[in-house]
Design brief:
Two copies of one chain form a homodimer. In chain A, helix 1 packs across helix 2. The first copy, chain A, contains five helices and twelve strands. By secondary structure, the first copy, chain A, is α+β, with helices and mostly antiparallel strands. In chain A, the strands form three sheets. Chain A has a five-stranded antiparallel beta sheet, with helices on one face. The longest helix of chain A has 25 residues. Chain A has one domain: Aminohydrolase, N-terminal nucleophile (Ntn) domain (Glutamine Phosphoribosylpyrophosphate, subunit 1, domain 1, 4-Layer Sandwich). At the A-B interface, helix 3, helix 4 and helix 5 of A face helix 3, helix 4 and helix 5 of B.
């Protein structure tokens, strides 16, 4: 499983992904699920993936190859974020045409989900969620975030805290708390994490960090959040 | 969907269930998911159900009928909680033998899950989770709670707070917070709630309340928990 979350705030974009993949609990590996496409001054695109690893790797490889070939439509020459989301959708459809029938013969469903966010010069930052069928939806001011993978454990805290007016630091903090709750409840989501914070109109990546087991800020979040929750719990009155 | 949670604490048992059923978001109804079997001084059994409503209703009806007939094995004459869990499992198997094939022809899987908890004179309180196949597991000191239905949203708070040494009031409070998080994130879980708190060795039900929209304690939990979370969130330091 996987857990990825991304937010589109007025101040910019926040992306967070874990790196655990598993084919059963006896086959757990570490694969990064965040890919960054950047041309400073022109565009920053961030792609998060979940679902069948063979499918999501095939999609990112196709996208990479089309970028290198630089002909036809590709992420690095898409004129808008909407067109970039279409490029990802089309790559997904190509992989589906090639693999879906064979997977079916092994009883494996074609599952994949992507989040694509970023900014292309001339546009505001935008955020999309792309489904296995290759179609997609865009984040709006009312629903400024998307999650893919094991999303439920970490959803309540985002629903309670996040709105478009939050700062990037607050967005990152909330994403990390959401990830911490997910990791605590689900073995198939795990460190290291990839965190990328994109400041609106920067058109380059200023903050992209890998969070390992010994990361002091993530450990502080982990400990202090749990401790504070228990304290708040203790302070709530008992039922009369 | 449904959300039910039950805890086996040293002090006794806590049960909480919602009452929303849906067949698509355009067909939402209210059905209670908690059934209580009580003979004061001898036994208290509480059954929580989730999954296909036709299946869980058929199971509870069969259990009711066998109690009235009072022959063969039934919940009211089971000598132990283990045997009582078997009675529920057998009722489930009977319904499956009758319905599963026909459901399959309509592409409907046979899904149902039950939690059975309680105390029978001569035993300590016990708690079981019963699967659609009719088999079951029992709660232990290390894992003193079970959830069925839409369980993920409300799991992190239980994992952080609940251990067997918690009081019944704390268990009820935690169950209500867990339910509140679930209702906030999932339209298919909704009020009224059924809350039952069973004190160890009482062998009768002292506290069984229905929680409606205007319940002051649930509203206090709802508002104060959300508010406190936002405050704790604000007090956590930003990423350096």
């Amino acid at each position: 499983m996987t857990y990825c979350v991304a937010m589109r705030l007025d101040a910019g974009l926040v992306f967070l992904s874990d790196s655990r993949t598993n084919a059963g609990v006896d086959h757990i590996n570490t694969f990064r699920k965040m890919t960054v496409y950047e041309r400073a001054g022109d565009r920053v695109l961030v792609l998060l993936s979940s679902g069948n690893l063979a499918i999501s790797q095939a999609v990112t490889t196709l996208l990479q190859e089309s970028n290198h070939a630089a002909e036809g439509h590709c992420l690095m020459n898409a004129p808008t974020m909407f067109e970039a989301a279409r490029v990802v959708g089309d790559a997904l459809r190509e992989v589906r045409r090639r693999d879906a029938e064979d997977l079916k013969e092994f009883g494996i469903e074609f599952t994949a989900a992507f989040i694509l966010g970023g900014q292309i010069a001339g546009e505001a930052p935008r955020l999309f969620q792309i489904y296995a069928a290759g179609n997609f939806i865009e984040a709006t001011p009312e629903t400024p975030y998307f999650q893919i993978g094991e999303s439920k454990y970490g959803k309540p805290i985002i629903d309670r805290v996040i709105h478009r007016g939050r700062s990037l630091a607050e967005g990152a903090k909330c994403a990390l708390i959401s990830m911490d709750s997910t990791i605590r409840s689900n073995l198939s989501v795990g460190l290291p994490l990839d965190l990328l914070v994109y400041e609106r109109d920067a058109l380059c990546v200023a903050k992209h960090v890998s969070i390992e087991n010994d990361d002091p800020y993530f450990n502080l979040i982990h400990n202090q959040w749990g401790e504070s929750l228990r304290q708040v719990f203790a302070e709530l009155p008992d039922m009369p």
